[in-house]
Fold this sequence. Notes:
Number of helices: 4
Strand content: 25-35%
Amino acid sequence: MTISLESKFGSADIARVATRLATTTTREEEMEYRSELQSMNIHAAAVDFGGPVDKIISEVMSHAAVAAQRCNLVKETHVELGNVIGACHEVLLELMHKAAGLNVGGKIALVRYQEHLCVALFAEIGLLSFNEVGLYLAHRAVPNE
């Protein structure tokens, strides 16, 4: 996806950006893409995760919220953090629906441009020879302060 610096981005654009970030395969690729986004005033964070799906939910939400703050996606306010937690919870519920009782591994990406906040989660789901993948999205409108 080619993005010009003069563009105004909508929710679908930011969802595409979050999806691409969540599907990066190396830390180097992730950091390079985040740097490219930062030059367009798009803030982004990503967190890798793995383990039994029912045991990692709160940990993933917590790490995502901390990453969102550290990468300047949100301020430490009830409204902004609440939107991050709500969007993360939404994508994790979708993952749990598909992967209940199984192991998962993947990445959750958070992207913010102005009032648009999008969370994308890409996960590999597996048990023995059963291998599946899932990609989940959530969007929130977060007021600019």
